[in-house]
Every structure is written in structure tokens, then in C-alpha cells.
């Protein structure tokens, strides 16, 4: 294991890839390489960047590349901006600002940004998020760009990558076991414990789950907390609706647009829950905590 201090904000992905062996195997699977020596990989994961209080899941240097890996269970188009914050802090450590006044070039490792997505919302197998997509206006040739590759590791996606990387495959098995049990009504803590025990008995990352069982259970209860999950879904849906509402507002008045946009956002959030978790419209509205007196607007016939 690396000597990076564990943090209460860790999740199972972070814990799994604090082991350099697993991190090296993931890098090899991603890049078609065959590195075997753990000392060739230097972990530089941010624990808490100065002032900004940001933290990334796994950052490491190998083969003259600075790799920043993140796991996300929600759709987050802001990852390019987050990664920009991360990479600036990383580069400050690798090339301290005082060295930039030299007349010779200060060499830095080429950064590469990857997000492993395993949320409930339906997403493509691979997609690219761009920093320029967050600019207020369109820039044909942006002078500052940052690209993040988002890889869907949900069941049915990225099979070739998962076949190459045992640790990532085992992680997805665990997540899907725990998530499936929760959907069936098992309480979060018990769902996680059962998923861990099944992985151990089935030989899925058995040593990892056996050695870190209690820590994994504690992390995952928080990670799979239904109230937090519902809150994220509700906020995402309302944010989508607000964006659409602002567009409507340009032609119909801002207040009307916001109201209509909120309704659109809720409809999309309801549909997302119905499609991904196979809930009825009533169950979806209950999960999203839509007021009783407003539910008639969202009832599908």
C-alpha cells in the first residue's frame, strides 16, 4: 500500500487504488502497457489542496505522464474545471513556481484525465468533456482547453477494459451487488455487508475485501446512502430544469421560464428514476420528495 494518509472522504475506489499494484494494473489496462515494477509509479494524489480544499481520487506519474483518475456515480460535466484545479496544484508540486523564472524550459509530465462512471443515469460507453464546453460563449479555437475522458463501467459497458483489469472488474461487481440489494429494499448497511461477504465467498477481490472489510462497510454505507442519492438526483433534475427554464425565459419572461424549467427538470428526474431503477411514477415522486399537491402535474398516463 502507498503511504498516503486515508481520509474520511475516501470511497471504495480510492481505497482499492491506494494499492500501487492495482493502480499499475489499471494503468496497463488503460494504455496497453505491461509495467510490472511498482517503483516506476509515483503516487501524487492530492489530500487537500491549499486554499481550494479540493481532493482527487488517484493521481500518479508514470512513463512521463501525470494521470488523474476519478470515480463518479453522478453525471458531472464540470469535471474539466475540477481537473483544472487539480492539475494546477499537482504541477505546483512538480514544478514549483520559483523555477518558472529560468531561461531554460521547465519540463512537466503530460497530463491525462479520466473519469470512471458507474452511476444510475444512462450514459454512453465513452465520451469527452471539454473545458471549452463550460465557457459562456463558443470559442472556435479555445486558447485554454482540457479534455476529460469519461468511461462507463456499468454492466454491459467497457467489457474489454474490465476483462483486462481484475481490480476494476471486481470493484464493479461489488458496486452492482450492493446497489442491486438496495433497490430490492435491503437497508444500505446490510446491503453492503452482504455484497462484501458474497465477493469474498466468490473470490472477487477476496483478499482486498477480507483485509478491509470494516472500513469498506463504513465507507459504502455513506456512499450508498439513499437520502444522499435522492438529494443528488433531485438537485440534478432541478438544475437541468433551471437551465431549460432560463432558455424559455428569454422569450417568455424569466419568472415563467424558471417555473416551466423546474417542471421540466422534475419530469426528467422522474423519468430517469423510472427508467434506471424501474420505479413506478408514484415511487419516483416519493423518492424525489415532490409535494403531494404538485404530483398531479407529473402523473404519466
Q: Report how far apart the termini are.
A: 55 Å
Judged by helices, strands and strand pairing, the structural class is: alpha/beta
What is the makeup of the main sheet? 6 strands, mixed
Overall strand count: 6
Order of SSEs = HHEEEHEEEHHHHHHHH
User: What is the radius of gyration?
Assistant: 21 Å
**Poorly predicted sequence stretches spanning 5 or more consecutive residues:** 1-9, 48-54
Amount of beta strand: 5-15%
- Assign an overall shape: globular
Helix percentage: 40-55%
Summarize the model shown:
With 301 residues, this protein is an alpha/beta fold. It has eleven helices and six strands.
Question: Would you write up a description of this structure?
Answer:
This protein is of the alpha/beta class and 301 residues long. The protein is built from 11 helices and 6 strands. It has helices at 12-16, 20-31, 79-94, 159-164, 166-183, 188-202, 206-211, 213-223, 226-252, 254-277, 281-287, and strands at 42-43, 58-62, 65-72, 110-117, 126-130, 147-152. The chain has a 6-stranded mixed β-sheet, covered by helices on one side. Strand 3 (65-72), helix 3 and strand 4 form a beta-alpha-beta unit. The model is unreliable at 1-9 and 48-54 (pLDDT under 50).
Amino acid at each position: 500500500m502507498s503511504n498516503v494518509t486515508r481520509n474520511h472522504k475516501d470511497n471504495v475506489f480510492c481505497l482499492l487504488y491506494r494499492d500501487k499494484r492495482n493502480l499499475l494494473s489499471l494503468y496497463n489496462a488503460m494504455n496497453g502497457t505491461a509495467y510490472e515494477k511498482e517503483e516506476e509509479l509515483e503516487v501524487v494524489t492530492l489530500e487537500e489542496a491549499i486554499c481550494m480544499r479540493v481532493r482527487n481520487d488517484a493521481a500518479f506519474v508514470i512513463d512521463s505522464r501525470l494521470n488523474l483518475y476519478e470515480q463518479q456515480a453522478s453525471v458531472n460535466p464540470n469535471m474539466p474545471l475540477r481537473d483544472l484545479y487539480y492539475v494546477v496544484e499537482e504541477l505546483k508540486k512538480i514544478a514549483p513556481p520559483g523555477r518558472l523564472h529560468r531561461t531554460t524550459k521547465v519540463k512537466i509530465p503530460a497530463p491525462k484525465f479520466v473519469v470512471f462512471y458507474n452511476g444510475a443515469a444512462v450514459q454512453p460507453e465513452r465520451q469527452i468533456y471539454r473545458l471549452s464546453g463550460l465557457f459562456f460563449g463558443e470559442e472556435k479555437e479555445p486558447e485554454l482547453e482540457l479534455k476529460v475522458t469519461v468511461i462507463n463501467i456499468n454492466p454491459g459497458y467497457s467489457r474489454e477494459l474490465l476483462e483486462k483489469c481484475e481490480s476494476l472488474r471486481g470493484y464493479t461487481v461489488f458496486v452492482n451487488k450492493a446497489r442491486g440489494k438496495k433497490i430490492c429494499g435491503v437497508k444500505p448497511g446490510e446491503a453492503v455487508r452482504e455484497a462484501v461477504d458474497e465477493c469474498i465467498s466468490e473470490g472477487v477481490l477476496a483478499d482486498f475485501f477480507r483485509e478491509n472489510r470494516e472500513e469498506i462497510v463504513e465507507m459504502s454505507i455513506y456512499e450508498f446512502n439513499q437520502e444522499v442519492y435522492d438529494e443528488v438526483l433531485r438537485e440534478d433534475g432541478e438544475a437541468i430544469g433551471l437551465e431549460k427554464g432560463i432558455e424559455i425565459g428569454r422569450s417568455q419572461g424569466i419568472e415563467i421560464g424558471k417555473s416551466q424549467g423546474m417542471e421540466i427538470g422534475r419530469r426528467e428526474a422522474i423519468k430517469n428514476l423510472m427508467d434506471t431503477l424501474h420505479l413506478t411514477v408514484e415511487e419516483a415522486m416519493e423518492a424525489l420528495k415532490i409535494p403531494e399537491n404538485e404530483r398531479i402535474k407529473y402523473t404519466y398516463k
